[in-house]
Amino acid sequence: MKLCRSRDDRQLAGVCGGLAKHFDLPASKLRVIWVLGTLFSAAFPGVLLYLALWYLLPEEPPPAPSFEPPPLQPWKKAT
């Protein structure tokens, strides 16, 4: 799986959700670790890294639309 920002598991930009999905970790635990790491490192490196990942990581592509063709009805004209 390619590393990208999450579309559905996001609090701000989807960085932690995307990292959690990529490394198969719970997103809530990763967010807590990220916040604690940011607070204990004088906030600057954690915030800077988050902003860099927000800019550099592409957003997860949207899910493919599920299209089911209508059932065949030979008595109706196609529109």
Structure description:
By secondary structure, the chain is an all-alpha fold. It has a domain at 15-56. It has three helices and no strands. Helix 2 (27-40) crosses helix 3 (44-56). The longest helix is centred in the middle third of the chain and has 14 residues, at 27-40. It is elongated. It starts with 14 loop residues before the first helix and ends in a 23-residue tail after the last helix. 13% of the residues are buried.
Descriptive keywords:
46% helix; elongated; mainly alpha; 0% strand; single chain; 79 residues
Write a short abstract of this structure:
This protein is an all-alpha fold. Helix content is 46%, strand content 0%. It has a domain at 15-56.
Helix content: 40-55%
Residue-averaged pLDDT, rounded? Answer: 84
Shape, per Cα inertia axes: elongated
Gap between N and C termini: 41 Å
What amount of the residues lies in strands?
under 5%
- Helix-strand topology string: HHH
Note the total helix count. Answer: 3
Rg, Å, rounded: 20 Å
Indicate the topology.
Elements: H1 15-23, H2 27-40, H3 44-56
Helix pairs in contact: 1-2, 2-3
